[in-house]
Write a sequence for this structure.
């Protein structure tokens, strides 16, 4: 098993060397107003960047531009970032971090704001960790934050300052947008984008909706038959002693539920994969007693494994990619026992857990091949004198239904 684990680690370590770094057609505008067309590394930023990498041509060296020297940059038909000095409220957005003031606490910062909708009325967003703030302007006026804040009242309850609704009622006046539309508005990206698109349409002006070009979360259902090479080590203080069963090749079948996260060019995903697995092995053993004798021993271990984990893709081309994953594995025991001369010596408890790592290849977002290593899983017995240790390496074929 150690050799198999070494193989997994070697494959994972080599992946970065062969993965594609995507530079796409873009541009940037310097402080002096000069516009430079170039290739920008598209990282599909989950957090608004403070710098970006670019190349002037395909074969040139990679260079970096920071926010201090660039007023604007963008990736053609994909995204646009505008540098602006704004008043931003960074009040806590997570329960337990709310303060007791209804009013935002502004501070002046220079930020790259991501453009969501550009037109007569433009919408921007700033993301940093759990912080999400929306900004807007009208007719190229100064950009200001749409105010939304949750806070604690004197009696400990959570209340909301929804000043952003009044801001929009005041500024986005149009016969197609009534009070009820604004009143039901959520401080969420899709809700605000829809409003700004409708306002610009109402004013009959040309707009650019960058949100249409962004990656959306994608759910995949994948069938995964496979083969597992497993070993089981039984430990006991009885006369039977310790015993390691030979590697057993067994069939496995899983169904993977994968959600591809809507940022960083769809390179990250989370997954759950209920998998049926079964281990069976028989052998002849010589006891450790003063009068050694041969006995027949057998082990059976059947369970449903449920890995819950995270996956990272490395794109090789538009049709192929390599991935690595890591997971925490919940194991539900269906039938586990160790017998000697037909007498049961060990019966495992219902639940166990361990961890796993894997690597694989996917073609056309449809077919995949994955090698996965499960670290040792200790199967606690019903008695204090016995236990078993299970190790497994598996090879899966995958077929994505949707």
């Amino acid at each position: 098993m150690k050799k198999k684990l070494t193989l997994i680690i070697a494959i994972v370590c080599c992946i970065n060397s062969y993965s594609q770094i995507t530079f796409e057609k873009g541009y940037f505008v310097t402080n002096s107003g000069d516009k430079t067309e170039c290739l920008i590394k598209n990282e599909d930023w989950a957090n608004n960047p403070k710098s970006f990498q670019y190349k002037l041509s395909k074969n040139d060296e990679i260079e970096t531009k920071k926010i201090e020297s660039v007023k604007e940059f963008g990736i053609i038909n994909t995204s646009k970032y505008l540098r602006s000095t704004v008043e931003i409220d960074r009040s806590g957005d997570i329960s337990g971090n709310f303060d007791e003031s209804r009013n935002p606490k502004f501070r002046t910062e220079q930020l790259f704001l991501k453009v969501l909708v550009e037109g007569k009325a433009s919408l921007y967003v700033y993301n940093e960790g759990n912080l999400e703030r929306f900004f807007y302007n009208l007719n190229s006026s100064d950009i200001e934050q749409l105010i939304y804040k949750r806070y604690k009242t004197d009696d400990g309850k959570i209340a909301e300052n929804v000043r952003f609704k009044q801001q929009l009622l005041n500024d986005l006046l149009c016969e197609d947008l009534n009070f009820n539309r604004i009143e039901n508005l959520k401080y969420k990206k899709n809700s605000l984008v829809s409003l700004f698109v409708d306002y610009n349409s109402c004013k009959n002006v040309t707009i650019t909706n960058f949100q249409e070009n962004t990656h959306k979360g994608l759910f995949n259902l994948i069938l995964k038959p496979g083969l597992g090479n497993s070993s089981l080590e039984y430990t006991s203080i009885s006369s039977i002693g310790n015993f390691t069963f030979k590697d057993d090749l067994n069939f496995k079948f899983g169904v993977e539920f994968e959600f591809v996260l809507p940022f960083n060019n769809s390179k990250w995903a989370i997954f759950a994969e209920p998998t049926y697995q079964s281990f069976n092995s028989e052998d002849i053993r010589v006891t450790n007693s003063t009068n050694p004798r041969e006995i027949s021993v057998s082990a059976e271990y059947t369970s449903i494994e449920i890995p819950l984990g995270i996956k990272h893709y490395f794109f090789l081309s538009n049709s192929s990619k390599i991935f690595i994953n890591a997971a925490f594995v919940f194991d539900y025991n269906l039938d586990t026992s160790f017998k000697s001369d037909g007498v049961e010596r060990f019966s495992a408890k219902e639940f166990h857990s361990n961890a796993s790592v894997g690597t694989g290849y996917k073609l056309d977002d449809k077919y995949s091949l994955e090698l996965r290593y499960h670290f040792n899983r200790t199967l606690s017995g019903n008695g204090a004198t016995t236990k078993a240790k299970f190790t497994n390496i598996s090879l899966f074929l995958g077929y994505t239904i949707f």
